Amino acid sequence: MKKRAFLSTFTGIITCITVPISTRSAENDAPSSQTEYIKLEVKGFVTGIVAIGAETSGYAITAKNVTLELEFQGNKENINRAKRVAGSRTPVNVKGTLKKILGVVRKERLVFSVEEIMIDSNQ
Fold this sequence. Notes:
Blueprint: H1 2-28, E1 38-48, E2 59-63, E3 66-71, H2 76-85, E4 91-102, E5 108-119
Parallel strand pairs: 3-5
Antiparallel strand pairs: 1-2, 1-4, 2-3, 4-5
């Protein structure tokens, strides 16, 4: 009788441990960024930003009181355009995708991954 009670308790402990592990692995199996994405086009103003632990690209775009951090994926041409207009109140059109990034200090943040940034010459 004691042996059966021990096995029942032991099985309950294993079940409690394995459920959270299997739940976490389901989160990691989320659809890839190739099948799901959010495309954006924003007309606004580029500003410089800083963050603790350097968890930023250094630039953001603001439009309609919404600010999104910009990520340039190493595209030097887009970086140079952002540098040229940052803080100048020169409007820009930015196209790209929105994604969530996990950080150390800033746990989760939305980042606008830039595909194209064009300076608006029709001021």
